[in-house]
Specification:
With 342 residues, the chain is α+β, with helices and mostly antiparallel strands. The protein has helices at residues 24-30, 45-51, 54-64, 101-110, 127-130, 134-137, 220-225, 272-284, 288-304, 326-340, and strands at 16-17, 35-37, 70-75, 82-83, 94-99, 120-126, 148-154, 157-162, 167-174, 177-182, 228-232, 237-240, 245-250, 255-262. The strands form 2 sheets. The chain has a 9-stranded mixed beta sheet with strand order 1-2-12-9-14-7-6-3-5. A 5-stranded mixed beta sheet has the order 4-8-13-10-11, with no helix packed on it. The longest helix is centred in the last third of the chain and has 17 residues, at 288-304.
Length: 342
């Protein structure tokens, strides 16, 4: 008997929030799971332009674009909407190019009705660096955060499940977006690809969510048991907490997403992903007994890090075992740079 088809839309929906004006900041601080705010950005000029049509949205963006080349990802004509690896997982099924925004958007509009249109995607474009006034005219009340703000523009595309280190507030400004989300603990069930050779800087799930091969990826069924779906229309916003996996689909012939990334951590702290790579370099391939000894050290100094770690030491002698400051973080960074440069 043939296996029943899987449809992501059959998954449970992410919960929705109704927030009073000014309540977004507090809700974000309290959140540990994804949530949707319908119409959060409904009054944005960009959203209003998009409601008038793709041509109006493109004109709005072009008018505010800075005079510089924009990076763009272009798939193969007839190759579908999935931006992914090639068949050998050594390269990608798309190429990178750059050009003026007006020309790129003209290409998206010209391909709108073509069934074999290549995927065209401007991904993670720094809003302030590439546009004049766009960030200021389309803003959200994010409190004292200083987020990285990016804009994503393209036709129909699919981006494999991946995670981001910062928290993420994603706003659908034009078209329709679907996020399929998996909790961080589903890492082992998502069949993650290479860490160093990635389509866009983050490791991705190798499973095709639209047509999962359960014979090849059997544990993915367990991931689906924990998955949730968020369908966004123009003006809707989705909060994606740090390290939550998310597969992203853009359904309309023209789509725009604006997102905000931030970390609730001091800027002087290092990047956890750098520590992961260093641990792979220095610890992972040690003999099993050595790894267990290092696991105990990591638990003691990093993951548990209870009061007993330093209680026996005078305050002035605790060094980097005390809560980090910009100065002590700088000392660690300098020591690591000296070590890695040998």
């Amino acid at each position: 008997m043939a296996e029943a088809a899987f449809a992501p839309a059959d998954l449970p929906a992410v919960g929705e929030e109704a927030l009073a004006p000014g309540a977004l900041d507090a809700r974000l601080r309290a959140a540990d799971r994804p949530f949707i705010v319908r119409g959060l950005a409904a009054d944005w000029p960009l959203v209003q332009a998009a409601r008038a049509g793709a041509d109006a949205a493109c004109a709005y963006l072009v008018e505010r674009a800075r005079d510089r080349a924009f990076p763009v990802t272009i798939g193969t004509p007839g190759g579908g909407d999935r931006l992914f690896y090639d068949d050998l997982v050594t390269g990608m099924n798309f190429r990178s190019a750059q050009g003026p925004l007006a020309g790129i958007l003209d290409g998206i509009l010209a391909n709108a009705d073509k069934p074999d249109a290549p995927a065209i995607y401007l991904s993670s474009i720094d809003t302030e660096a590439y546009f004049q006034g766009l960030r200021q005219d389309n803003a959200l009340p994010l409190g004292d955060r200083t987020p990285i703000e990016s804009i994503w523009i393209g036709n129909r595309t699919r981006i494999a499940a991946h995670n981001d280190v910062p928290d993420n507030l994603a706003v659908c400004a034009a078209g329709r977006r679907r996020f399929t989300l998996f909790p961080p603990e589903q890492l082992g069930n998502l069949y993650i690809g290479p860490l160093e050779n990635t389509p866009a800087g983050r490791a991705i799930s190798m499973v095709d969510l639209r047509d999962p091969d359960f014979a090849k990826f059997p544990r993915f069924r367990a991931a689906l048991d924990c998955a949730m779906v968020a369908d966004l229309e123009p003006g809707d916003a989705l909060f994606v907490p740090s390290l939550w996996w998310h597969h992203v689909e853009a359904f309309a012939p023209f789509n725009v997403l604006v997102n905000y990334w931030w970390r609730d951590a001091p800027a002087f702290l290092g990047k956890p992903e750098d520590a992961l790579l260093h641990a792979i370099l220095a610890v992972r391939d040690l003999p099993a007994a050595d790894r267990e000894r290092w696991r105990a050290l990591f638990d003691h100094y990093v993951f548990d890090n209870g009061a007993d770690v330093t209680r026996h030491l005078p305050d002035h002698a605790r060094g980097i075992l005390a809560p980090l400051t910009p100065d002590s973080a700088g000392q660690i960074r300098a020591r690591l740079l000296r070590s890695l440069s040998r």
